[in-house]
Amino acid sequence: MEKNIEKFMTSTDCPVRNVLDRFGDKWSILVVLVLGEKGTMRFNEINKTIGDVSQKMLTVTLRTLEADGLVSRQVFPEIPPRVEYELTHLGISLVPHIHNLAAWANDNLGEIRTSREKFKV
Amino acid sequence: MEKNIEKFMTSTDCPVRNVLDRFGDKWSILVVLVLGEKGTMRFNEINKTIGDVSQKMLTVTLRTLEADGLVSRQVFPEIPPRVEYELTHLGISLVPHIHNLAAWANDNLGEIRTSREKFKV
DNA sequence: CCGCATCCGCTCTGATACTG
DNA sequence: CAGTATCAGAGCGGATGCGG
What we know:
By secondary structure, the first copy, chain A, is mainly alpha-helical. Helices cover 61% and strands 12% of the residues of chain A. The first copy, chain A, has a single domain (2-119), classed as Arc Repressor Mutant, subunit A. Chains A and B meet through α1, α2, α3 and α6 of A and α1, α2, α3 and α6 of B. Chain A binds a DNA duplex through α5.
């Protein structure tokens, strides 16, 4: 960071592009947040908690998070099948940062809304 | 937060959905980061610093950030025209949080990459 | 119960050309 | 210099149906 921001930005190793872009999708942050809050959860539990995520997107999101090493997935060979998800230490280490962002969002939502309204005119 | 996460998640007022979704686009975070680093900047300056953003997307991104009240836009009626952008106090207040995230990304990029490689197999 | 496969619409993004 | 306009492609995300 600091003064090397130019190099930093254009580099293909830029952490912002490589990592944060991953959370630019619609659900990743929410899933991490939910798992951080609740601990271990089953697939349908996550689905219900978030509410309006489709099965497909939740699957895709969980797979991506698993690939990134943020979420662990444990399948129990039972009938009916049971699959439990929880955050890895890596995922857990991310939670406070997301909480901070969420808190910021919460604190400033009013001002942002006001600004958006004004801008319409 | 805390225990009301269910309500929190499903609410249409959920700050995560309303605010953070806004930064899910490809460039907003980068623009805020760059402006936070450099202070006041002209359009082409931002364009060059980021490197591979198209003129169109930079315009759209800046307009959105302006609408949200994170960035201020000042036009100087000269020829050739000059337009300067800088963060508002709201935008500035967001920067540290993004820095934290970027730092996290930087610290854990290696581990995430390793995990992604492993997952391929 | 979990989740993959398919299809499809829609949004986002970029390339290009043009204007004050 | 700082945009706007238009067009076209890619990929996200949802609905549905099927399978272990």
